[in-house]
Design goal:
The chain has 20 helices and 18 strands. It is of the alpha/beta class. The protein folds into three domains: 220 residues, Rossmann fold, CATH 3.40.50; 90 residues, Rossmann fold (3-Layer(aba) Sandwich); 177 residues, Biosynthetic Threonine Deaminase, domain 3, CATH 3.40.1020.10. The strands form three sheets. An eight-stranded antiparallel β-sheet has the order 14-11-13-12-16-17-15-18, with helices on one face. A six-stranded mixed β-sheet has the order 1-2-10-7-8-9, sandwiched between helices. Strands 5-4-3-6 form a four-stranded parallel β-sheet, sandwiched between helices.
Length: 503
């Protein structure tokens, strides 16, 4: 059986449409992880994904009469684009059924490539069932995205290229897993030629279809899957990929959404390209594997499988990347409600950069602050900071791993204050550097009480800060002198209707 696949991979007709992608060194990741990391850049394919390899190899294997009737495919996007491009190259009509959750960029790409997209269902499985019905009703050929020997062989050319490009010893190749076509193709080829290389499949922890199947020694259907990494949001691994994976995949690694976001940032830092969540899976798994095993001075390859990123998703990725890398702590800290408390708390934090600072007056005795703090040494530094703050007398709740806090509460801190006398509201632009907040608080001293504070680091040259301060009428002139002497751009917002309605 392996020999049959080796022959299929060696004779696969992928290079009519695909290119041999580079195996690039990831200098930054290599230095940080203490290993030589290389990225197989399938994001550089004409459709920004490896999927056109298998799609074209399948279509070109069909008899002419089947091609004349047309083809149907079901896909969350990347397989769809591969089929659309392959069909256009061969002059074949292609109907692509896509889940309604598919990012618009992928739907538009299918249309641009000459395919006809049809949105149906909320998951890949619903779209796939509908595509099969349409194929049967219309006499068209269904092109499966992963559970087909010709598709698997096309994807296996990724493994063939890796071995050509890296003849030196390799410890492991990390491969993203959705339905399993890519990992099956890579594994069967690599294990036949160089069995010492470990094949590590990587899945999101909310879509572990192959990991569960291997653990239970049978294919399972997950009750539901997360859709952040939409390209691998598959409830059941393919029958043929599972059969191959049982023999040739050494282990599976599961990673979180935050770890995927951190991997997207890692790939960007090293390549200046933006992988989609599924495309960054292998890098996230490689990092988790190195952390778990303590591996050093080895050659490692991660397959960057795609770059069809929806632009508006970048906001979420940027916010969660630091958490995934353990470079940010989210803390809920209680401080006394009196002038000077913010400055004292700021000094207790030390010279660390503050990424977020949210507070609204609610109690005359205590103030609850939601703070994001930049870390350089990961969990050990976070734990030391929490201990330090508690030793300084601050009640602290560590919310770094609190999913509700990360998704919702950080954006909800605030609201109306029950009774805040003499409050004025100002917007400031702080220089985005350590000490800017401390300088503001030091200049203000203990003269006025802060009743609202909202600051988030957006990665720009200036941090935008909204501050509510209790300033009695008799102090307004002195407060204006403070503003003028501060040197930060500011704008009063006390009469802003958004403040009146919601704050």
């Amino acid at each position: 059986m392996p020999r049959r696949y080796i022959e299929k991979i060696l004779t696969a007709r992928v290079y009519d449409v695909a290119r041999q992608t580079p195996l690039d060194e990831a200098a930054g990741l290599s230095a940080r992880l203490g290993n030589r990391v290389r990225l197989k850049r399938e994001d550089l394919q004409p459709v920004f994904s490896f999927k056109l390899r298998g799609a074209y190899n399948k279509l070109v294997s069909l008899p002419r009469e089947a091609l004349e009737r047309g083809v149907v495919a079901a896909s969350a996007g990347n397989h769809a684009q591969g089929v659309a491009l392959a069909a256009a190259r061969l002059g074949v009509k292609a109907l692509i059924v896509m889940p309604r959750t598919t990012p618009p960029i992928k739907v538009q790409a299918v249309r641009r490539l000459g395919g006809r997209p049809l949105l149906h269902g909320d998951t890949y499985d619903e779209a796939c069932a509908h595509a099969r019905r349409l194929a049967e009703e219309r006499g068209m050929t269904f092109i499966h995205p992963y559970d087909d020997p010709e598709v698997i062989a096309g994807q296996g050319t990724v493994g063939m290229e890796i071995l050509h490009q890296h003849p030196d010893p390799l410890h492991a190749i990390f491969v993203p897993v959705g339905g399993g076509g890519l990992v099956a193709g890579v594994a069967v080829y690599v294990k036949h030629l160089r069995p010492s290389i470990r094949i590590v499949g990587v899945e999101p922890d909310d879509a572990p279809s192959l990991e569960r199947a291997l653990a239970r020694r049978r294919r399972v259907t997950l009750p539901h899957v997360g859709i952040f990494a939409d390209g691998v949001a598959v409830r059941q691994v393919g029958r043929e990929p599972y059969r191959l994976a049982r023999r040739f995949v050494d282990e599976m690694v599961l990673v979180s959404t935050d770890e995927i976001c951190a991997a997207i940032k890692d790939i960007f830092d090293d390549t200046r390209s933006i992988a989609e969540p599924a495309g960054a899976l292998a890098v996230a798994g490689l990092k988790r594997y190195v952390e778990r095993t303590g591996l050093r001075d080895e050659n490692l390859v991660a397959v960057v499988s795609g770059a069809n990123m929806n632009f508006d998703r970048l906001r979420h990725v940027a916010e969660r990347a630091e958490l995934g890398e353990r470079r940010e702590a989210l803390l809920a800290v209680t401080i006394p409600e009196r002038p000077g408390s913010f400055l004292r708390f700021c000094r207790a934090i030390g010279h660390r950069s503050i990424t977020e600072f949210n507070y609204r007056y609610a109690d005359p005795r205590e103030a609850h602050v939601f703070a994001g703090i930049e870390l350089t040494e990961g969990d050990a530094e976070r734990e030391a900071l929490v201990r330090h703050l508690r030793e300084q007398g601050y009640p602290v709740v560590d919310m770094t791993d609190n999913e509700m806090a990360k998704l919702h509460v950080r954006y909800m801190v605030g609201g109306r204050a029950p009774a805040v006398d003499d409050e004025v509201l100002y917007r400031f632009e702080f220089p985005e550097r350590p000490g800017a907040l401390a300088r503001f608080l030091t200049r203000m001293g203990a003269r006025w009480n802060i009743s609202l504070f909202h600051y988030r680091n957006h990665g720009s040259d200036y941090g935008r800060v909204l501050v509510g301060i209790q300033v009695p009428p008799g102090d307004r002139r002195r407060f204006q002198a403070f503003l003028d002497g501060l040197g930060y751009p500011y704008q009063e917002e006390t009469e802003n209707p958004a403040y009146r309605l919601f704050l």
